[in-house]
Write a structure and sequence with these properties.
0% strand; 3 helices; single chain; mainly alpha; 64 residues; 58% helix
């Protein structure tokens, strides 16, 4: 059976955000997500993970 998608609240928890923070970012980027139990399609999930993966790399960089 194909993966149907992750819920906004589950992805937010995984990324260390609140559902509200993730919803606000998605809406600011132009994605009309209804609420925290909305299931994201795989493409949108990858996009969102990409937004926060860049931040995670910056935080783990060791400065000289």
């Amino acid at each position: 059976m194909a993966k149907k998608g992750v819920k906004v609240k589950e992805l937010a928890h995984e990324l260390g955000l609140t559902s509200r923070q993730l919803l606000d970012r998605c809406r600011a980027e132009g994605f009309p997500i209804q609420n925290s139990i909305t299931k994201l399609n795989p493409d949108l999930e990858r996009t969102i993970r990409g937004w926060f993966a860049d931040n995670a790399k910056d935080e783990t960089t060791i400065l000289p």
